[in-house]
Specification:
Blueprint: E1 4-7, E2 10-13, E3 18-24, E4 32-37, E5 44-49, E6 55-57, E7 65-70, E8 75-80, E9 89-97, E10 100-103, E11 107-112
Parallel strand pairs: 2-11
Antiparallel strand pairs: 1-3, 3-8, 4-5, 4-9, 5-6, 7-8, 9-10, 9-11
């Protein structure tokens, strides 16, 4: 098991910004990323980043969100700008490693209109 600990969620007004962070433990070499989920819906990709820094974003967040990674500190960040009410969700940190998926417990992001 690879512990993933998220932080940085909260309540923000539309148009505002938040930064999520995820700290991992152990030997980390796989892609990391963020997914989000609202009640009754599936968990959707937000953004991923490989250890080499290659990124992938959902179309809905391109140009607004930026994922970054500090391999030495084993931390991945998600800078979220121009937030919209539709961004409201529980955000989960993910590690894809050794043919296994590891998940954090999630952090709530609420964007008020």
């Amino acid at each position: 098991q690879v512990p993933l600990v998220e932080s940085g969620g909260g309540l923000v007004q539309a148009g505002g910004s938040l930064t999520l962070s995820c700290a991992a433990s152990g030997f980390i070499f796989g892609p990391m990323g963020w997914y989000r989920q609202t009640p009754g819906k599936q968990r959707d990709l937000v953004a991923t980043i490989t250890i080499a820094g290659l990124t992938n974003y959902a179309d809905s967040v391109k140009g607004r969100f930026t994922i970054s990674r500090d391999n030495a500190k084993k931390v991945v960040h998600l800078q979220m700008n121009s937030l919209k009410p539709d961004d409201t969700a529980v955000y989960y940190c993910n590690l894809d490693q050794a043919q296994r998926q590891f998940w954090g417990r999630g952090t709530q992001v609420t964007v008020s209109s």
